[in-house]
Amino acid sequence: MDLAVVWFWIVAALFVGYFVLDGFDFGVGMSLPFLGKDDTDRRVLINTIGPVWDLNETWVIVAGASLFAAFPEWYATLFSGFYLALLLILLALIARGVSFEYRHQRPEAAWKRRFDWMIVVGSAVPALLWGVAFANIVQGVPLDAGHNYTGTLFDLLNPYALLGGLTTLLVFFTHGVVFASLKTDGDLRERARRLATRAGLLTIVVAAAFLVWTGLAYGTAWFWGFAALAALALVGAWLANVRGREGASFTLLAITIAATVLGLFSALFPDVMPASNDPANSLTIANASSSEYTLTVMTWVAVIFLPLILLYQGWTYWIFRKRVTRSAVEAAAH
């Protein structure tokens, strides 16, 4: 198989890893106003992702670096054309990371409240804008003959893209709330399960609308297959949550996200950045990829290091697999 095609799917897999892992981090962050009755509840929620959030976030760095090396033309068009949107994502991620480290540095309630809201906003903005960005990539954007984006930030905020953003926002929120129920106990666990049930219904409706719109406008046979898998997994996740099976629900939501991302990439294939104004200006796998030698070197690097990264991350999750309890958090404060 052509190495450029292989790397197209490797990039897709890296974004699957990022959205599955950092997606539930976003969801936990967004859940603070809904589940955090007091400071202890909020500390419990933050501690559920405390050991892993920064490790999860590195997947976007790996995905971006792989995109830069394997498809430099795609990277250049994407990061220049979507500059303001990606800058907002970066600033939100910085605010969220700073808040995790600073909220406990002073005892005042107002101090903690400000950083809690930075966590909420710093989680919601990327969750929304990543969906907007990927929906625009699939839909296509105006490009000139040099593959430069000729639109504005507001052109990216079209109805289809906003529906994509709302879909990722709700899916990540639901995934995060299910993770909170999986990692907590007592009343907080039960409230998280009930919230996931309510949020899950809205998520199913919005996600179904987005998948159907995408399929009718841009779908391929492969897309419809992935979309069906995503839909079945999402409904199954909701049913599992209703029955109190948080582990199964969390896993099925991860499958939902993975199938959706792979479906979007299959709808995109063989383009990487379609031009909505003139198909001749579109970026494809063939005209956006690096040389065969570069891709060969990258493949060997991926074969050696990607399994090591997966083993290390799996080990981290295993070490911190236990539930976070209010009593443990309260004891650590004294």
Automatic annotation (TrEMBL):
It is a multi-pass membrane protein. This is Cytochrome d ubiquinol oxidase subunit II. GO terms for cellular component: cytochrome complex; plasma membrane. It is found in: Cell membrane. Belongs to the cytochrome ubiquinol oxidase subunit 2 family. One of its GO terms (biological process) is aerobic electron transport chain. The gene is cydB. The lineage of its organism: Bacteria, Bacillati, Actinomycetota, Actinomycetes, Micrococcales. Keywords: Cell membrane, Electron transport, Heme, Iron, Membrane, Metal-binding, Transmembrane, Transmembrane helix, Transport. The chain crosses the membrane at residues 6-32, 74-94, 115-139, 159-183, 195-216, 222-240, 247-269, 297-320. GO terms for molecular function: electron transfer activity; metal ion binding; oxidoreductase activity, acting on diphenols and related substances as donors, oxygen as acceptor. Its main location: membrane. It holds the Pfam family Cyt_bd_oxida_II.
